Amino acid sequence: MTVSSPAPRLLVRSLPSAREVDAFCVQYAPRAPGHPAVRDLLRLLSEVPDDGLDARLAWVERWMHWMRERIPAQGLMDGEDATLSAANSRLSLLVRVLEGEAPLRLAVTKLVSGVCAGSRGLKLFAQVGLSGGNGFFSELTDRFVRGVLPPPPEPGKLSELLLRLFPVPEDAEWLAALSPALLARLTVLVGDPPPPDPSPTARVRGDLLDALLLLGVQVTGLGLAEDVRDRTPELAFRASPFLRLRMVCDAVLARDGAPDSLRDLEQTEADCRRVVASVTRHLEHSGVSVDLVYRLERIRRGLDRMEAIARVLGAARGEPRWREALELLSDLLRHAHADRSVRALVQRNARLLARKIIERTGNTGEHYITSTPGEFHRMVHSAAGGGLLTAFTAALKFFLVGLSLAPFFAGLFAALNYAGSFVVMQLLGFTLATKQPSMTASTLAAAIEEDAVENDDPDDATDGRMERLAALVPRITRSQLAAALGNLGCVLPVAVALALGFQLIRGHALLSVAQAEHVVESLHPWHSATLLWAAFTGVLLWMSSVAAGWFENFVVYRRLPEALAHHGVLRTLLGERNARRVADALMRHAAGVGGSVTLGVLLVVAPGIGGFFGLPLDVRHVTLSFGSLAFAGCTLGPAAVMEPGFLAALLGVGVIGVLNFGVSFALALGLALRARDVPLREGLRFVGAMGLRFLRHPAPFLIPP
């Protein structure tokens, strides 16, 4: 819309008079001349600084505050797009004003040129959001210090300017929602200053090319590290795509981002990703270290950043380039805030640690899960042997309690009792109930990862994960039921036989009446804290599975079986064949023995540590508790077994089993989801779906088809 008398042109850097303000508002907001967005914009554009980087950056902050105002610049002229957001409506107003006001446009162009000339974007594009290799505690201390002490100003770095302009993490969504078309029009107006002022477009493009080269050097160094090369023996060093990556980046820089050089870069990045995938697959056989997991994560992040920069460089000028640039900037902003967040650091390291724990599936998951009726029955028989040994373990526990031992030796012998029993179970091929659910994190993670790789569509990947986990969870639950049936079905008669035999030989019961009554009271589900201790024991079971996976990985990563098989002294003493058998036994039982020893120690040490700090911690394992209750019943007699208190304790044993299983399995599932970056809401949705499926069709969760 035009008016009959044009407004007088404004003089830059002089405060406009009231007449000039009114004329300006009538020209650019004829339908709403009193709109505050128009008046504030005139005041802002009239105060563009001539020079000085600090003054110019302060003006850019003021402009961003004006853009962030929630009042939209709508209804100012006829024919406006009423669907624009508040930010885009103000951006549209700015573009219209600069198109019509040459002096203002020239001042803003000079300011943009000065800001870009005085700032560097290498750190922003090549370092923000990418780990610098610092240790966890070093980085944690640094972030705490930066949170308490004000950081020194660095006006020459775009990484600091980005955080000044967008001080909260939620600004990333606001930035991503800006219109690429309007930003392209704004770039045409203020992005090409007259000589001799430097071109902002050339400056930013140069920073992007420098960042691409720097990232190429870093990723090349990470990809050519020894532990990565050792896990890709089929690939010759000279044929490594990481070695080619540096040369391709040099070509991109030399040819100023020519399309064919960017296509070569894209192909080389894809080859590097295939090497990373191959290394990940080799972790199954060669083990994994924390350093290697961190290195693979840094390679993935570096390749992602290089790909995003290449998309910006290869996009056509105007709206397509701004669309890619906004995606890159919003991602950089998210990572810039994450780089200053202690919480983000803890979450990222927890995820990497989870990935390290379950990256190698090894022997710790699949053989604890049954599929067929034959496997189900073999699990019951294996668990029956575990129940037999547990009865002896419970009897020895009460015998040790009756000895007058110093606290250290009492704890030592109790830990040896538990750990020795669990190790013998492992070596004899027996099974302890509630132990196997916590050992299945690697198998769960493998099911999640398979669908994440096979499906490009996130929705399809989510559905695939749901289907695979929905098929896997019933196998785990019915395997646990088989183990519980075998344990409890055997521990009861063996414990009764031991108690009667002891009474026949010694003339008195294994437990005193006071001890038996204490056992019954301690297992009462609502008169004691037994449910809390059962859940706590589930945590200990999960921790033992983590230790089992760690020890098996340590054995494989350090190649201990090969070392033992070729050890000169061992071969001399046992012979070559027996030395090989020892090595094979170590490989076969590493996870089981490591987890068994850890569980036995934790069951004793955890309550001791709690008592040291005044916390009355205790443990409740379903098989040990049932064995203890059987000994108590033999002492109290048949009449006491039918008393309400004893029946409640029997119910408590059942609930202990459910909590042992539920907590350890939930932690294993959470570890798998965390390691594979599955959102929390998706995990909760899966749990709800599984609960609903169990209520509708419980049979597959209890018995094999």
What does this structure look like?
With 705 residues, this protein is mostly helical. Helices cover 73% and strands 0% of the residues. It is built from 31 helices and no strands. The protein has helices at residues 18-28, 36-45, 53-68, 86-100, 102-117, 122-126, 136-148, 158-165, 171-176, 180-190, 200-223, 226-230, 241-254, 259-286, 290-314, 319-338, 342-358, 373-401, 407-428, 441-454, 458-506, 513-522, 530-557, 560-565, 568-574, 576-612, 622-636, 638-641, 644-675, 680-696, 699-702. The longest helix has 49 residues, at 458-506. The protein is elongated and about 115 Å long. The model is unreliable at 1-13 and 451-456 (pLDDT under 50).
Provide the structure class: mainly alpha
Percent strand equals under 5%
The 3D shape can be described as: elongated
Low-confidence stretches: 1-13, 451-456
Please give the largest β-sheet.
none
Tally of contiguous helical segments: 31
Spatial extent as radius of gyration: 34 Å
Number of strands: 0
Overall average pLDDT: 83
Give the fraction of residues assigned to helices: over 70%
Question: How many angstroms does the end-to-end distance come to?
Answer: 76 Å
Protein name: Gliding motility protein
Organism: Corallococcus praedator
Transmembrane segments: 415-433, 481-505, 531-551, 590-615, 646-673
Pfam families: SpecificRecomb
